[in-house]
Amino acid sequence: MQGFIKSFYYAMSGVYRSWQMGRNFRVQIVLGFVALGLCIALNLLIWEWIVVLILIGGVLALETLNSSIEKLCDLISVDRDPKIKTIKDLSAGAVLIFSVIALVIGCMIFIPKIILLLS
């Protein structure tokens, strides 16, 4: 049990570091709370909540992985290296792809409900 508590502490420390170091992570947290507010305001169905929560978690997890890859790359080389740039670009691209898909799915869930609410 002691090992589990320690590993949980280390993981929470990683989340806190993501918050401290990552402007994008903080923006994505705020957007996640906006999405959760919309879930409450629009009275989403349980499956819609699940989808939104998975998307929020996926974006935040990928952003954290992206930050860790960037930090690792910075440890390997402080000089401008085209191979390191490619690695960083690929990892940022993964976050972008998932974020765009999350936005599209979010629009598919929220826009019809907003239109229905306004009509």
Could you give a quick summary of the protein structure above?
90% of the residues lie in helices and 0% in strands. It is mostly helical.
Question: Could you explain how this protein is built, in words?
Answer:
With 119 residues, the chain is mainly α. The protein has one domain: Helix Hairpins (Orthogonal Bundle). 90% of the residues lie in helices and 0% in strands. The longest helix is centred in the last third of the chain and has 37 residues, at 82-118. The model has no long low-confidence stretch (mean pLDDT 94).
Biggest sheet character: none
- Tell me the name of the CATH class: Mainly Alpha
Distance between the termini: 54 Å
Q: Judging by the overall fold, what is the CATH architecture?
A: Orthogonal Bundle
The proportion of residues in beta strands is under 5%
Helix content: over 70%
Total E-strand runs: 0
**Shape call:** globular
Which regions have little confidence, pLDDT < 50, spanning 5+ residues?
A: none
Number of separate domains: 1
Count of discrete alpha- or pi-helical segments spanning 4 or more residues:
4
Structural class: mainly alpha
Task: Look up the CATH topology.
Answer: Helix Hairpins
Along the chain, the helix and strand elements come as HHHH
Mean pLDDT rating: 94
Please compute the radius of gyration using only Cα atoms: 18 Å
Could you give the topology of this structure?
Blueprint: H1 2-21, H2 23-41, H3 46-76, H4 82-118
Helix pairs in contact: 2-3, 3-4
